[in-house]
Amino acid sequence: MKKLIRMRYTKWFNVSRDGLSRNNPIVIGVLGICSALAITNRVDNALAMGAAVTFVIMGSSLIVSLIRSFIPTRVRMITYMVIIAGLVIIVQFFLQAYFPQLYRSLGAYVGLIITNCIVMGRAEAFAVKNPVKYTFFDSLANGIGYTYILVLIAAVREVLAFGTLLNYQVLPDSFPTWQVMAIAPGGFFVLGILIWIIRDLTKNYDEEATA
Amino acid sequence: MSRNQRTIVFVFILGLSFSLLLMGVQSLTAERIRLNQEFDVQSAILDAFDESYTTANFNDVFEEVMETIETDDVVIYVHEASGGFAFEFSGLGVWGPISGIIAFESDFETIRYVRVLEQEETPGLGGVVAEDDYLAKYQGATMNGGLTISQTADPEASNEVDAIIGATRTSNAFEGMLNRAYEEHKAAWDAYDGGATT
Fold first, then answer.
1. How many domains is chain B partitioned into structurally?
2. How many Cβ pairs within 8 Å bridge chains A and B?
3. Is B105 helix (H, G, I), strand (E, B) or coil?
4. Residue of A89, A97, A107 lying closest to B22 (CB–CB)
5. Each residue of B100-129: pLDDT tens digit?
């Protein structure tokens, strides 16, 4: 028990909690919204996207953290871009070679991981200032934090839009499917409601709103 | 070493190592990607002629039921049972290349099947060009006098097909590439067929 209480004060615990809940990139930071709206119409797409983004966040953060003492300050943004773009292209090759079906349904959004603010954000805000062991927890927590929110949104949308969950029929055929949930506006509704619920539960309001 | 020199050396090493890494990954995956693309084309053509296949035997089935004719730098696939034709087409869309396959009945004029395999058009607008529901409209249309894709397509005219609403440029590009590919392949086939019979 004592050990558990003490864990709350360790850095890796706090770093992980930041990524997963306290500073979750999507619901608190409202980053990476573009892909969160676009590919969350089915749970399998959300899982694949989550895995791809987690890989890129972890890969880029770990590389940046590893070489952080060599990166010249003036070219650090370009350094992040080269590393991130390189990893995203590797993901593209990998999906094209082994999961062509997924590659097609994710379409342009795999390439757009390059522009996902979470990836660059973690590199600049955390990895470049922290040793590899903490960067590992930070990037993993942010990747999983992104993934589970995506899966939550996708679960709601897929059930309402297609009556299925992971392509298994969960609602009777007589259920009138909600076309709007299959398209981007449906993503907006679900994400908005989710952010509202989570912020209300965690009492995380914007400063001005509470004042 | 001055700061500038260090920066240049750093950028050089970074660029070099990532280029090497990407080249390595590409050469590792190139063969599988090529096989996947071959599967896409061949399975689409087999679907066009209602042939059944599995992911394991598609290549054997394809070689059995289709005859591949290479003439005049073009490749035409002939379905031996029905005498139908198929070939690949490609061209520039609005944002990127569009490519796919088109199949014809044995008259080499009536469209039997169209499938778009690759496109980067605007999702929801030009992206409709890859949807099977939309491409089903092409079934039964003829290339006689050139295919016309327009918003005011005459349902009576067999060579007119509805354009995609809100995607005029994609529709125009698609019309152009289909007609171009058809003319090229038809001319090559006529030359080949004429030469073969005389």
1. 1
2. 51
3. coil
4. A89
5. 999 999 999 999 999 999 888 887 788 889
Chain A nearest-CA distance from B12, in A, is 11
Cross-chain Cβ contact A75/B10 below 8 Å: yes
In angstroms, the CA B58 to CA A198 distance is 50
DSSP string, A98-114: H-HHHHHHHGGGTGGGG
Q: Say if B162 falls within a structural domain.
A: yes
**Residue-range definition of the domain harbouring residue B112:** 47-197
Residue A18 maps to a domain: no
Q: CB neighbours (10 Å) of residue A41?
A: 21
Q: Answer yes or no: is B157 within a domain.
A: yes
Torsions phi, psi for A188 (to 5 deg): -60, -50
Residues A163, A159: Cα–Cα separation, whole Å: 4
ipTM greater than 0.85:
no
Pick the closest to residue A17 from A129, A124, A144, A131 (CA basis). A144
**Chain A CB within 8 Å of residue B8 CB:** no
User: What is the spatial distance between Cα B5 and Cα B38, in angstroms, rounded to a whole number?
Assistant: 48
- Report the domain count for chain A: 1
